[in-house]
Amino acid sequence: MSSRIILIGPPGAGKGTQAARLSEALGVPAISTGDIFRANVAGETELGRTAKRYMDAGEYVPDEVTNSMVADRLAQEDAAEGFLLDGYPRTAAQVTELDSMLEARSHSLDHVVELTADTDEVVGRLLARASLQGRSDDTEDVIRHRLDVYAEQTQPLTDLYAERGLLRRVDGLGEVEEITARILAAIGR
Ligand code: AMP
To answer: CA-CA distance, 90 to 59, in Å (whole number)?
Structure first.
């Protein structure tokens, strides 16, 4: 059974935590665009320098940059049988680009899992993470801005995937294990 899955949801909904657990359960790689950008920032690559400006401001990195990075990653062998995309696509242009990447290999998406969480809850979680991890985009102003950008540019993508019959909405509030179980049930695994 192929597992080509997108995890979508506001910053702080727990996508990264769930992606790691689902990756284990399903045997496909978790691919987080945020993690790849952060690795490039840490490694002081050209891509990292470009991405950092946008990340620190809570803005999306331009589509061309993000799309080509994802194309490279999906072309790697471990993603041939499936993947969990955490944090991509986030814009309508990224949806289109992902469609053509998959089409070129005669592949298609199996599920789009939307992790829902209310704003006050995610702001609280992100502030807690900020003090633990010291991420430079986890200050309260930037957090609020990231949530606005999400509402404006990414939330509408769920309607599009719902129209395609791919959307599985899962309550992101609760114990980590419980949420993993909910997601697995929602995707029939
Ligand atoms: P995340 O760890 O998924 O919250 O991503 C952290 C930051 O990386 C975001 O606030 C964006 O600046 C950037 N980023 C991650 N994924 C994308 C994407 N698909 N498109 C544009 N920017 C992204």
So the answer is: 11
Q: Does ligand 1 have an atom closer than 6 angstroms to the CB of 88?
A: yes
Tell me how far apart the alpha carbons of residues 18 and 50 are, in angstroms, rounded to a whole number: 28
Ligand 1 center–CA 162 separation, angstroms: 22
CATH code reported for the domain at 3-32+82-186: 3.40.50.300
Domain ranges of the chain: 3-32+82-186
**Chain centre distance of CA 35:** 10
What is the C-alpha to C-alpha distance for residues 147 and 12, in angstroms, rounded to an integer?
Answer: 9
pLDDT tens for 94-115 read 999 999 999 999 999 999 999 9
Pocket of ligand 1 contains residue 74 by CB under 6 Å: no
pTM given for the model = 0.95
* Ligand 1 atom closest to residue 59's alpha carbon, by position in its atom list: 12
Helix (H, G, I), strand (E, B) or coil at 91: coil
Closest CA to 7 of 15, 117, 79: 15
Mutation pick for ligand 1 pocket among 8, 50, 55, 86 (CB with most ligand atoms within 8 Å) = 55
Over range 121-128, report the average pLDDT: 89
* pLDDT above 90: percentage of residues in the chain: 87
The answer to whether the peptide bond before residue 10 is cis (omega within 30 degrees of 0) is no
